[in-house]
Amino acid sequence: MLGYDMNWANFNVVEVMASPRFGEKRSGYLAAMQSFHQDTDVLMLTTNLIRKDLASANIMEVSVALDGLAQVATHELAQDLFDDVLAVMGHVRPYIRKKALVCACRLVGRYAEGLSAFVPLLKDRLDDPDPTVVAAAVSVVCELARTDPRSYLSLAPKLYRLLTTSANNWMLIKIVKLFAWLTPIEPRLAKKLHAPLSHLVSTTTAMSLLYECINTAVAGNIIDVQLPAVDSVGREMDFASLCARKLEQFYESRDHNLRYVGLVTLAQLQARRPELVAAHYNTIMRCLDDPDMSIRMRAIEAISGMATRKTLVPTVKRLMSQLVLSNTVALQPNSCAELNVESETLDLPLLDAAGASLVSAQGTIVSPKIDVSDVADNPEYRLAAIDAIIDMCSRQSYANTSDFEWYVATLADLVYIAGVDVGLRLSERLLDVTVRVRQVRAFSIKMARRLLSDSCLVDRSCSDGTNSPVLSTSAYILGEYCMLQPSSAEDIGLLLPSGLSKLSDEQQAVFVQAAMKVYANWLKDVSGYWNPEIWELVRLVTSSTQHTLSSIFMGNACVALPLQVASRLRMFAEILKTVSLATSNLGDSAPPVCAELQYLFSAYELNPVSAAAQGKVPVPEDLDLDTYIGKPIPDTTHKVMPPPSPAPRPSRAKDPFILPSVDDIPMVALQLDSPVHAHKPRKTKKKSRRKPKPRSPSPPPVPVDIVDDEDMPEVSK
To answer: How far is CA 135 from CA 106, 131, 387, in A?
Structure first.
């Protein structure tokens, strides 16, 4: 019991279990239940002992044997004693029948083959005259139906009878839970269960039973049955409306457990009948301020599904105010290098209590504080809130969003107040809304310039939790749609910051590509009003850009640039070199390259294409995909190459052992008329008994020159 090993006393435990005295027998079974496990070797010695106790006339011995077997049963014990336990299920004492049901349930978990024999007896126990045995049978069915509810579908009629006749709330809870698993398998049960469940929802005062009834009605689609329900005062109403009204008792309760399960069920109801849950918007919003984090998480889940065009903006502002009015984010109004005060003293919030936007705040992030005193400081809650904001705004292709500039500003604000690493999600949403909505592209460029001009955000891009992927997305937007805003040479500097080499290879490639596009667009704009001042400005910007590229990427010659960065960098360097040569001398007009360079990047507009767009294009009737356009290309994949020709052999015309032709072979005439004489067998000589004479030693071996195969003469056939 205290965790000490008792293997040394296993045989003694078995001996005490076999004692004729009940007190000692009970102690032995208790010791076995505490110390025996599946690998205990003495369990095989207890088979006959337990069988004898199960057949005892003393009900106390039968009871203790059932308790012990349920705890220590192995596959072998369950197989050997399963029939004995089934026989005990018909005992005259209800006390033993209840324990036999529970023991058989445990044995089925060890010996699954006995389930077919156990289900008919379990079905009979549902009609037992003793209500405690019936409650035990329902509990066993509820336990077994968790894994395979289809096997117990035949028990539905008896379970329905118990549902309508029993007054035991705990048994009713288990029966209702059983029907929540059986109704999806047999949809016809929904109409049958409508009346008893609606009656229980209207009349019961037990909160646990009320929750199970509502949960079963939602999970089993019973709320979709077109039958009226009667509330507690006798009014007819829709069953779903009745469930939604009863749920108010849960999430308005002071009990945190009831509020939690109420919000969980409300989220399930909202997925099926959203119009019923919309009326509880204010109540759910109050749950966002609950000090319990689990309740806040469930409230976010429910409020996310309730978002409409009318409620989107206040919901997002409420969540953002929670994110910023915490100890995780603080305002730093100017650049980090311009301040001489410590960041921990700058605790002015980025948003006020009303949820004002950050577009006019001109703030940036600082080091997050360590003190975590509120639920809003929990990273898990902050991540859930940001996911809910993104989901509510972008659901169904932005069906709830009417002001896209507000949405882009919200995404830019989340970069500062997130407090967690959500850069990939924010960058995906920012790029998606910019590409899809043409009217918001100009405003997205403003937000991109604001993010790229924040020196602290760029310098801290390599740190965790700074959402650096948004910077590369901002660079892409600024380069792709730069022609929508007045061009400026400052944008080139924003895209070539001093810390660019610290970013990833993909981000560096995006920045260099965007800088090329912005530079080409700026050249086209300034070439329209060419004068000496513009010429000097172009020369200055071109030379400074060349110097910036050299200082960023060519400062360390030992480090090899990635291929995707090196190719774009080489292209940009050639463009700068070409422009520098074309503008070496001042002319009356701008060189043609200044105006035509932009068409390298903007000859065609990049539009979004649906993934299913190709399937919607009709195939022309005269299109023949089987006819070759030109000459067919030979298939050389399985072509067999000819064997190599053998090497020529040296000529052997002068070899005396080689016949020049077959005709030169001498022929011998055979006389077939002459008889063939058989040879007589030789007589075997008798062995001599004389001793053999000693032989003289053999002469030493003479070296022999062995002729190779190549030098052997060839015989013509």
So the answer is: 17, 6, 45
Helices (H), 55-205: 59-72, 75-88, 94-110, 115-125, 131-144, 156-165, 169-182, 189-203
Q: Are 302 and 250 in contact (CB under 8 A)?
A: no
* Helix, strand or coil, per DSSP, at residue 653: coil
Q: For residues 298 and 264, what is the distance between their CA atoms, to the nearest angstrom?
A: 6
Helical ranges in 204-311 per DSSP H: 207-219, 239-251, 256-272, 274-277, 281-287, 293-305
Q: Cα–Cα–Cα angle for 356, 298, 314, nearest 5°?
A: 20
Strands (E), 497-550: none
Residues 333-367 have pLDDT tens digits of 343 433 333 333 333 334 433 334 444 343 433 33
Report the predicted TM-score, pTM, of the whole model to 2 decimal places: 0.69
Is residue 352 helix, strand or coil?
coil
DSSP 116-143: HHHHHHHHHHTT-SSHHHHHHHHHHHHH
Q: Are 201 and 231 in contact (CB under 8 A)?
A: no
Quick: pLDDT tens for 252-296: 888 888 888 888 888 888 888 888 888 888 888 888 888 888 889
Helix-strand-coil split of the chain, %, nearest 5: 60, 0, 40
**55 close to 88: Cβ distance less than 8 angstroms:** no
**H helix and E strand count, the chain:** 31, 2
Instruction: Check: CB of residue 543 under 8 Å from CB of residue 600.
Output: no
Q: H or E element: which one contains 229?
A: strand 228-230
CB 445 within 8 A of CB 481: yes
What percentage of the chain reaches a pLDDT higher than 70? 79
Q: What's the pLDDT tens digit per position in 2-16?
A: 667 777 888 888 888
- The mean pLDDT of 523-541, rounded to a whole number, is 89
Exposure of 177 in the CB half-sphere (CA atoms within 13 A):
19
C-alpha 494/C-alpha 485 separation (Å) is: 15
Cβ-Cβ contacts under 8 Å for 619 (sequence gap 6 or more): none
Q: Coil, helix or strand for 364?
A: strand
Half-sphere exposure of residue 45: CA atoms within 13 angstroms, side-chain side: 14
Structure letter (DSSP) for residue 332: B
Q: Report the C-alpha dihedral over residues 146, 147, 153, 159, rounded to 10 degrees.
A: -20
User: What is the average pLDDT across 534-543?
Assistant: 90
Q: What is the pLDDT of residues 390-440, one digit of tens each?
A: 999 998 889 989 899 999 999 998 988 888 888 899 999 999 999 999 999
Helix (H) or strand (E) segment spanning residue 228: strand 228-230
Rounded Cα gap, residues 46 and 661, in angstroms: 98
Residue 199's nearest CA partner among 232, 170, 221 is 232
Q: Could you read off the pLDDT of 590-618 as tens digits, one per residue?
A: 888 888 888 888 777 767 777 788 788 88
The radius of gyration of the chain from alpha carbons, rounded to an integer in Å, stands at 46
The predicted structure's pLDDT at residue 474: 93
| Burial (Cβ within 10 Å: 0-12, 13-18, ≥19) of residue 175 | buried
Instruction: Write 567-576 long-range contacts (CB < 8 A, 24+).
Output: 568/509, 568/512, 568/513, 568/516, 569/512, 571/516, 572/512, 572/515, 572/516, 572/519, 573/546, 573/549, 575/516, 575/519, 575/520, 576/519, 576/542, 576/545, 576/546, 576/549
φ, ψ (nearest 5 deg) of residue 665: -75, 130
Distance between CA atoms of 465 and 516, rounded to whole angstroms?
A: 29
Phi-psi region of 221 (alpha: psi -120 to 50; beta: other; left: phi over 0): left
Buried b (16+ CB within 10 A) or exposed e, 484-520: ebebebebbbbbbbeebeebeeebbbbbbbbbbbbbb
